[in-house]
Amino acid sequence: MTGAGAQSDVRSGSLTVDVRGLHCLTNGIRQHYLDFNHAAPGIPVLLLPGITSPAATWAFVAQRLATSRRVIVPDIRGRGLSDSGPGLGYSLDDYARDALGLIDALGLKKPIVVGHSMGARIAARMETTAPGAASRLVLADPPLSGPGREPYPTPLVSYISAREAASKGATVEQFRSFTPTWTDEQIALRIEWLPTCSIDAITKSHQNFQDEDIFPDFPKLNCPTLLIYAMRAKVVTPENAAEIGRLLPNGEVVGVQAGHMIPWDNLEDFISVTERFIAAA
Q1: Is residue 148 part of a domain?
Q2: Residue 117 Cα to chain centre, angstroms
Q3: How many CB atoms lie within 10 A of CB 104?
Q4: Residue 224 lies in a domain
Q5: H helix or E strand, kind and range, residue 8
Q6: What CATH number does the domain containing 242 carry?
Q7: Which of 43-57, 177-191, 238-252 has the lowest mean pLDDT?
Q8: How far is CA 27 from the centre of its chain?
Q9: Overall pTM surpassing 0.85 (yes/no)
């Protein structure tokens, strides 16, 4: 682990949650991560964000989950303060090895892994790469596009346009068309951090949504696995959810009334469903 970053206390309800920004060297790259409630006992949670979501933008979710446990949120390579630049790979296997390296580097010992969108794909691939690395998995609205399947419903240009607007200093009001249901604070945070997402990382990751098949991973997930799907989005349809439920050896499927960015649309239900599943561990 290398140099400690900022440390502060954040409020979550009536509790104070300690958060630290740190770096570690693993899988050949420098990974930055936020560490919430570092000293908490019990099974830690590794929270893996999506294609254009640096760790800071998920802090409001981590704070809620960290009131009674340790929560780690990394900047996925090519985003935030983690390594970015020419020569980096952005395949699902690259991301999975990063997650496994972080687990080893921090001594997390079979964490509960919660992944959203691309992060859910990473969580599934991580567990099939190293079976038993996680004690439980929460897969929130993973992109299911791939060879022979419907394309991912959000086009690449949408991500690139949002990043360009943020990079040119868009205001909260100007940016609201990209994120109409979010609070001003959440939009401001996204504007701040979106320019740290590498265009190369976004482009290659989006292409891999079409090229990499995640379905063969589902039958190999032997640990308890919860699929949460957004009922107001088209990323995981009810038919998809039923198919995945049949493929998971030890799975559960729950729909939440929300768009794809589930916690931004319906934080309380996302936390409730996730906490119930985590508590069973």
Answers
A1: yes
A2: 6
A3: 15
A4: yes
A5: strand 7-12
A6: 3.40.50.1820
A7: 177-191
A8: 19
A9: yes
